[in-house]
Amino acid sequence: MADTAQSIDVEVPDPWSLPLDTFDVSRAEIFQQNKQGAYFRRLREEAPVHYCPESMFGPYWSITRYDDIIAVDSNHLQFSSQKSIVIGDTPDDFDTPMFIAQDPPIHDVQRKAVQPAVAPSQLSDIESLIRQRVCNILDDVPVGERINWVEHVSKELTTQMLATLFDFPFEDRHLLPYWSDVTTTSETVGIAVDMEHRKQELMKCLEYFMRLWQQRASEPRKFDFISLFAHDPKTKDMINNPMELMGNLMLLIVGGNDTTRNSISGGVVHLNNNPAEYAKLKADPSLIPNMVSEIIRYQTPLAHMRRTALEDVDFKGHKIRAGDRVVMWYASGNRDDTVIERADEFLIDRPNARRHLSFGFGIHRCMGNRVAEMQLRILWEEILNRFDHIELVGEPKRVLSNFVLGYEDVPVIVHPK
């Protein structure tokens, strides 16, 4: 996994005081305490292609500048996704291949099978359903009292959208974010923290989806993920490789859960931390689509993706050896002020706001990016229709992960119009 079991109480030292030759930005507590910015700034300035010889995941290279990340992300001939997409290796006895962790041609075949679920024509068909669900969720939000925005809105909206994309039994939809958290999070109340327990929980996930697969395979093809996989001639036999099936399911669940959920939460946090931008939004709601892109850039819901060098590569004056881990830190590239002007500022009217790395680049670019943007756009349209202000009333509690940049608790009071 790409996280640790340490707690928020672990001291995070000043990055400028550390020797570069042992500099390790993979420690999850750095991200939980929201201190990664200074770590990445030092790397971008002093060692944009940096080798860490020792970490709990083993040695790895950090790629921290925007253009260098694009160069690695778009070069699958030398930098492969197949070993793992996160900094840590998958246990040998629990290998779960997924199409984002594959290279062409397997990647292209599996991605193409489910792409129709998030095609523009399909999204147009479900926009009214998403808006109705957004309205129902917001209408149920208690006003004038302290609530956790993550639980009341972010998680519920994302879960309902995932249930729609999978055509998952609505009464069991809470299982989807649970399985996502089991996959990505170390220390969350009620979530499995040891690998053996994780395996057990994910096997329950697999069993559930295998039942759905058998059901969909016997029915006419529809536009949900399971039906598309089950009916595509090139993926219908995936049911015979349960670990590959589970890998692809978890990719779709985590991808659909974490990016949107944490951008919904992050938007509230960033607008409260930048009141002039919140005022700008209220004065001009037409900024919402651009603001959505800025939220996704500024939050960067997935901090990194990993590649593995397939051969010795000379990269920016460094010799990357075959088999080396190469970690693209999207959270750093999105703050690279040599490419993005005033990159550390949250500006909802930023020009070219979609020019961010949060969805990846090249053949592995997130295929659900338009779904995420649509959910956020509709949500903020309906928030402005209903509420005067969403007030942050405490310090957000962030998850313990170097992969998912997200929140467990965003305490707010919702003020009605």
TrEMBL record:
Question: Gene3D superfamilies recorded for this chain?
Answer: Cytochrome P450
Tell me yes or no: is Isomerase among this UniProt entry's keywords: no
One Pfam match:
p450
Supply the name of the protein. Cytochrome P450
Family membership noted in the UniProt record? Belongs to the cytochrome P450 family.
Keyword Iron listed? The answer is: yes
Listed SUPFAM superfamilies: Cytochrome P450
Q: Which UniProt keywords apply?
A: Heme, Iron, Metal-binding, Monooxygenase, Oxidoreductase
- GO molecular function (one): heme binding
